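Deliverable D4.2, example record:
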Amino acid sequence: MSEQVKKPIKIMETVLRDAHQSLIATRMPTEMMLPIVDKMDKVGYHAVECWGGATFDASLRFLKEDPWDRLRKLRDGFKNTKLQMLFRGQNILGYRPYADDVVDYFVQKSVANGIDIIRIFDCLNDLRNLQAAVDATNKVKKQEGRGHAQVALSYTLGDAYTMDYWMDMAKKIEAMGADSICIKDMAGLLVPYKAAELISSMKSVTKLPIQLHTHYTSGVASMTYLKAVEAGVDVIDCAISPFAMGTSQPATEVMVETFKGTEYDTGYDQNLLSEIADYFRPYRDECLANGLLNPKVMGVDIKTLLYQVPGGMLSNMVSQLKEQNAEDKYYDVLKEIPAVRKDLGEPPLVTPSSQIVGTQAVFNVLMGERYKMATDQTKDVLRGKYGQTVKPMNQEVIDKVIPGEERITCRPADLIENELDKLESEMAEWKQQDEDVLSYALFPQVATDFFKYRKAQQEKVDLSKADTKNGAYPV
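Output generated by the structure prediction step:
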């Protein structure tokens, strides 16, 4: 028998970002990460995802940590491994579209502080909302020789999302100047045989490496990875076992074992992975004990496949109904979600489109009349403020919710003036490093509170005794 052609599958490790974002609301502090960096650096991972997504907000808001400081410390520890972040296109890591100069500066500073791979996505898969971030990454790459722009497509189901759609998107992403493509299956909707078809189809039209990201929510993720690897996917996203499964990713060690001795063998050392798992296990137990890790998120929720609703969106909806004493309306709302999604042009359901569609569906059911009341975000989607959807929006709904208003058809960020200088002047008194202006840009209030806290720590001020009115601080 002839020698197998080796095609080792690469693994991106998510324990320092998406795994804890998915299971414990992004609450893992930096000091929990640093002691294990040395061992993680020896594995030979394709990359370690450690920044972006909700880590920025959570660091400032809940952990009272500077996210830039976290990145620098991790960069310092990882000598041989690429570091990756998640970036929401024109929204960066915030919840509104920003001017191009802010996007550009954020990319520049992310790479300067240690990020190698920037995974960029948009909740509508509107590629116009990703172009500025891709261009910024390519500009830095030209100057610094570092930086990789990966465009992520939010995977979803619906009439518009045919194989031709995904193939067409792959070609466009290559033409945009991206370095690789990620299929971002945030709700665990991609089933095994579909994954094989999707990867083969996309591979037939692009030379770019393809990475697959999914969540275990619906219970099929490991099988999806198996079929995707056989179909030629280049990289899969996994989490070390104590923070794997449930709403997180398949377990790293399981996937390494699965491909052992085959042409896809990763070559990773299971003993080393086992030491990394041993390190995180007590922390997982602590999170279970203090309630940070709810056992509910560890199971399989097949409703995800039935209703195509991501887990976070489902729990959000249940709590909204609880507040209104309307839990009996659960199935009515579930039926209404696909209808609202269709009205809004069939967007993928991922932050923030998932919350917008879910909340509007709740209103429609509780009010007894559809769109009798529309949220500001629903209005903004209909106005075109978030970008273009794959299918046209429902004209009757547009006429009812925003009658007579002019809609945006250009790239929404074209209407935003450069804003870096203005932001800089607003927060000048707090600035201690260039990066502070970016923290402020994304979360003005939260960042300002953090800057005050940081100053107090530096000056060892007792804020409870501080006489802020007269500016007298007892040290």
